[in-house]
Amino acid sequence: xxxxxxxxxxxxxxxxxxxxxxxxxxxxxxxxxxxxxxxxxxxxxxxxxxxxxxxxxxxxxxxxxxxxxxxxxxxxxxxxxxxxxxxxxxxxxxxxxxxxxxxxxxxxxxxxxxxxxxxxxxxxxxxxxxxxxxxxxxxxxxxxxxxxxxxxxxxxxxxxxxxxxxxxxxxxxxxxxxxxxxxxxxxxxxxxxxxxxxxxxxxxxxxxxxxxxxxxxxxxxxxxxxxxxxxxxxxxxxxxxxxxxxxxxxxxxxxxxxxxxxxxxxxxxxxxxxxxxxxxxxxxxxxxxxxxxxxxxxxxxxxxxxxxxxxxxxxxxxxxxxxxxxxxxxxxxxxxxxxxxxxxxxxxxxxxxxxxxxxxxxxxxxxxxxxxxxxxxxxxxxxxxxxxxxxxxxxxxxxxxxxxxxxxxxxxxxxxxxxxxxxxxxxxxxxxxxxxxxxxxxxxxxxxxxxxx
Length: 453
Ligand code: UD1
Ligand code: CA
Hints:
Blueprint lengths: L6 E6 L17 E2 L2 E2 H11 L4 E6 L4 H10 L4 E4 L6 H7 L1 H4 L5 E6 L7 H12 L4 E7 L8 E5 L2 E6 L6 H4 L3 E10 H10 L14 H7 L4 E5 L2 H4 L5 H21 L3 E2 L12 E2 L4 E2 L4 E2 L3 E3 L4 E2 L4 E2 L2 E3 L4 E2 L3 E3 L3 E3 L4 E4 L1 E8 L4 E4 L2 E7 L4 E2 L4 E3 L9 E3 L4 E2 L4 E3 L2 E3 L4 E2 L4 E2 L8 E2 L11 H17 L1
Parallel strand pairs: 1-4, 1-6, 4-5, 7-11, 12-14, 13-16, 14-17, 15-18, 16-19, 17-20, 18-21, 19-22, 20-23, 21-24, 22-24, 23-25, 24-26, 25-27, 26-29, 27-30, 28-31, 29-32, 30-33, 31-34, 33-35
Antiparallel strand pairs: 2-3, 6-10, 7-10, 8-9
């Protein structure tokens, strides 16, 4: 069997995205918590690209950093003057000169394209095409390049501004994604001029040049929803909606119950095991993992945290980075957990803040308990053992260590360590003055009478 050809993906992302009206380069805006460029890089990886090059603008250090973070083997190339998509691809020439295989050219602002569509284009190359273009049927083709066909062969792509009235009637449009056989790419790029309405070097002109060289140029198609690009915040929201629908569907097909799927927000990397139950209005920020049988109840917010099997979170709970909730543990309403281990079967059920702490298994934390983890300069740790009972409205001033089996009295402010099995009480003594209440009432009554006279 012939060896699979190598594949280089070039992501064009040097555009300024002025219509986003943002300080941030367009492709750094996020969908599901991942920058647009990250979605594209993930999809080309999944389609078998073994190298990725990203073309960036001269003023985008943040974008270069994100690319490196996504894939430390990816290279970035700077397009100095933004003179069109062919000029952008030329900037990445060192990545493909001498390269043998498939070159996928994709836009950084088209985040919903699926690996399968890239694979379709590569299949066309393996069947003998020199160039394959991803097309779609546009409901409204205004602004898009039109695909001009002769039978099964693509003969040209005409940009909207350069198209005749007759060509503008064509609804089959260019999604902007192309696959080239590497051996033809440099020659085709060299043939492209900027003789058009925009005076830009259009990558789409590669089609006519290839046809003139007698090469085969074909089209594969994808649904419009998948190839929609982002130019403004409204389109960003539209893509977010499609992404969320995909994640919700995937979760449900994976065995997760979503009682009101349209109200649950996912991040790109949310991992929910089968038999997780998610009630309405839950937000999953990045890096959340929930194990089988756990329930995430209504109006909870989770990010960078783990929830073990059979645990219950919420309603109205907040799990912040580093929250690690053990098997069968319960985190109740208006409870915030940050950077804390809550061991198996422990309960923090009401109105509490637990930060920089570890809570042993089966320990019960009473309502309104606060770990005072911050003194204004440094963070300190609170350690609580197993099978403890921490009374309601406790103030735990860290650093603090509480042994196993401790009971602490409600309303205590604990500032000193508590040994195993001790009862800790740290609150003013109560005093009862017998029969004193009527005397006080009589005195107050007389005062009131004197005043209203
Ligand atoms: C492009 C296509 C058009 C297609 C449409 C699909 C060309 C000439 N036109 O048009 O046929 O229907 O996409 O959405 O290719 N970029 C650079 N450097 C540049 C110019 C662009 O890196 O100098 C990048 C942009 O960051 C963006 C992508 O290339 O990611 C597309 O550029 P854009 O200007 O949005 O092209 P369109 O006019 O939308
Ligand atoms: Ca565009």
